[in-house]
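Issue 218. Parser rejects a valid record. Input:
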Amino acid sequence: MPTQAADILCRHGQVVLNEREAILQELQQFLNRLLGFLVLSASTVPGEYLLPRVMASFHSRYPGVKLEEKITDSSRACREVLDGRSELGCVGARIEGADLQFHRFAEDELVLLERKDGGSHFYRVDQPRSAGPSAVSGTGVGLRNPDGF
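Output the parser choked on:
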């Protein structure tokens, strides 16, 4: 037959063991989910067209993380990350000399367009090319054709 002291120790010991298990379970739940605040700085195009979808997907996966997006120009977005005011940045141009690591995240494509019937008042696109105003015939990009009216 246990002594009175053993009885007290056993009763309180069981409470401590149950509490320990509850603490471990709660910590495990906490560690398996991300919580906190994430500030992103982005230049205009990524900030307005690319990141909203990415941020919505991230938020649905990690609802405990509050996201804030700052839309600015590439130079200021880099400065925000360098100064620690943003954790991440997304820009369309590398800033030379910035003490940052740049990682390719996405690519976009810019295209010129015109009406299929060729009735555009703008100069016609002769051939699609990857860059430069030489893809457009005439004397300038985006100038209205004076004979088009």
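Fixed in the parser; the record now loads. Residues 109-144 form one domain.
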